[in-house]
Design goal:
Two copies of one chain form a homodimer. By secondary structure, chain A is an alpha+beta fold. Helices cover 40% and strands 19% of the residues of chain A. Chain A has two domains: 1-81, Winged helix-like DNA-binding domain superfamily/Winged helix DNA-binding domain (Arc Repressor Mutant, subunit A); 84-136, Ferric-uptake regulator, C-terminal dimerisarion domain (Dna Ligase, domain 1), CATH 3.30.1490. Chain A has helices at 8-19, 27-36, 43-55, 102-115, 131-135, and strands at residues 25-26, 59-62, 72-75, 86-90, 96-99, 118-119, 125-129. The mean pLDDT of chain A is 86. The interface between A and B is large, with 35 and 36 residues. The structure holds a DNA duplex.
Chain lengths: 136, 136
DNA sequence: TTGCGTGCAAAGGTTTTGCATGGCA
DNA sequence: TGCCATGCAAAACCTTTGCACGCAA
């Protein structure tokens, strides 16, 4: 069994991720945020902690097409059951939508029955354009 | 209107992409391939040409979760109508599946009608586990 | 006191850029 | 000949790693 310590840096970073659970946050964003408010956190600390949070399934790691270089992270909101639904992301504005929808579960079942492929809702993000951006 | 020249490097790279249209190819793979067969191509040339092919919608650029660092490219096969269907990718073995399936079109319509979100099949990849890897 | 966490700097891998040269049209 | 393409090297990014020091338990 692994042990881990509670530190100021870790609780601050986790809190920041929780506060921004509706967004996709990059490591750089986190580092900049804490630098701006006057409590800088080391790069390595951020990356290492993000890695372990991903490992513990506390947050998710994404790589989005529009932000090709840097990885995004998102807190997994258990109250919102983020573990059991898909996410859609607008490629224009970055809006993240939680898709609680039976239809996609049906599709998932169909694909498993007919195409013998088990979809992973944690790794899949549906990309497209949101209502607001469609209007423009 | 932009002009562009036909060069040996460009036709070789494009041909290689066409020959591997059923795979997700990285820039490194291309560079290594041409080095191995004795007609090396410059890194910058490969990256610049890939960029313009993406821009012209001749190939697609992907970033996959399992290969977090490098981008993958895939030739858009018009004969296979790759422009009008989704792709599924196995996160275990990398197998790429072309999903010609009415059910997902229904889902796409449903999401557009009910959730006001227009899915982009070019940017979306469904991740999961293929039949072979499920057996293991 | 123990040993994990932190943070700096350096290294690693991927991609981009500057610039002189090469080659298509 | 005009201009785009090439390719080398250097730079720019994002991320990881090594190591000495700090700090939670």
């Amino acid at each position: 069994m692994e042990r881990s310590y509670q530190t100021k840096q870790r609780s601050r970073i986790l809190e920041y991720l929780k506060d921004n659970k509706d967004k996709h946050i990059t490591a750089e964003t986190i580092i900049e945020h804490f630098k701006r408010i006057g409590s800088p956190v080391g790069k390595a600390t951020v990356y290492r902690y993000l890695d372990s949070l991903v490992e513990e399934n506390v947050i998710r790691r994404y790589i989005t097409p529009e932000n090709s270089t840097a990885a995004c992270y998102q807190y997994i909101d258990d109250e919102n059951n983020c573990k059991c639904h898909y996410h859609m992301k607008c490629t224009k504005c970055g809006l993240l939508i939680h898709l609680n929808c039976e239809e996609i579960d049906e599709l998932s079942n169909h694909i498993f029955e007919e195409h013998k492929f088990k979809l992973d809702e944690c790794k899949t993000i549906l990309y497209g354009t949101c209502a607001k951006c469609l209007e423009k």
